[in-house]
Amino acid sequence: PPPVESKLPFKELENQWPSEAIPPGSRGRDEVTEEFMDLAKVRGPWRRPPKKRHEDLVAPISPELSPPQPLFRPRSEFEEMTILYDIWNGGIDEEDIRFLCVTYERLLQQDNGMDWLNDTLWVYHPSTSLSSAKKKKRDDGIREHVTGCARSEGFYTIDKKDKLRYLNSSRASTDEPPTDTQGMSIPAQPHASTRAGSERRSEQRRLLSSFTGSCDSDLLKFNQLKFRKKKLKFCKSHIHDWGLFAMEPIAADEMVIEYVGQNIRQVIADMREKRYEDEGIGSSYMFRVDHDTIIDATKCGNFARFINHSCNPNCYAKVITVESQKKIVIYSKQHINVNEEITYDYKFPIEDVKIPCLCGSENCRGTLN
């Protein structure tokens, strides 16, 4: 049968039990309860460990600190009046105009308004306080090199403003009045006419054109060449190794370039020619001026030594005398276009050992000698 639930307390039920139902030597409920409570007092209460929340695991390392609130001291009466009347010195800006307009509208909305407001109208006026443009601070310190060394950086590009600054500083230094040995400034004298370079060149050309009618000398042309050099460049040539090319149109019978080198005697030229052959220098850069003088441009010369030979050249060489010194100058034989190679006839003497010619012209002789 199902058990019958009793609503009596445990103490009364225990008293109603028969003595035969309680085994001998067993302890009562009160003794067991007292023993359990004593043991709990010694060990302490047992509690389930609390679970750690996700917020505690991912909590920030340092707490967020709110910025401190700024504290401003109250202004004095003098400071208030200074700020109020600052408009007479610094003017008013857009913010001041906006707040003045708001104040004017509020005064109009008041019932006990002043009489002068009825005769006053608001008219917009631009601000009178214009802030000056901030000048960029120029860094005059040492330049920082990315690679750590100035030599490995190459060339730095100079800004146009920096160039103008250097130019102005140089002009300022030249404009300073000269001083004598005692430190006294010498009164400035009127400067000579400082005309532009283009004006000087045009005057030079006018003088040359007037002289050519009466005096057609090579010395005058040589001075013209020194005054304005032709634009030339050297690069790879289809004739032989390197060649000289024109970077501007050159008219006929004009001086192109001077053949520059060391003036040596015939004996020295023979010794150098043998030494150059031993060193492996196959090209000859020696140009004969006369029976005793030879110009050697092998290791000391200019672009003229790159001019190649051609059996149908567009230039020719001519010896002129300048201040009792003979010079070799290359003249244009015909009109030379831009990027056209400059050539002339070497006119080597006839020898048994032939040097092949690679000019490729229509009337090529086949050999240089």
Automatic annotation (TrEMBL):
Domain SET, chain residue ranges per copy: 230-347
Main localisation: nucleus
GO MF term set: histone H3K4 methyltransferase activity; RNA binding
A single cellular component GO annotation: Set1C/COMPASS complex
Database matches in InterPro entries: COMPASS_Set1_N-SET, Post-SET_dom, Set1-like, SET_dom, SET_dom_sf, SET_SETD1A/B
Gene Ontology BP annotations: methylation
UniProt region (Disordered), positions on chain: 1-30, 170-203
Superkingdom in the source lineage: Eukaryota
SUPFAM superfamilies from the UniProt entry: SET domain
Keyword list, A-Z: Chromatin regulator, Methyltransferase, Nucleus, RNA-binding, S-adenosyl-L-methionine, Transcription, Transcription regulation, Transferase
Sequence ranges assigned to domain Post-SET in this UniProt record: 353-369
Cellular location(s): Nucleus
PROSITE patterns reported for this sequence: POST_SET (PS50868), SET (PS50280)
Record keyword Transcription present: yes
Pfam families: N-SET, SET
Protein name: Histone-lysine N-methyltransferase SETD1B
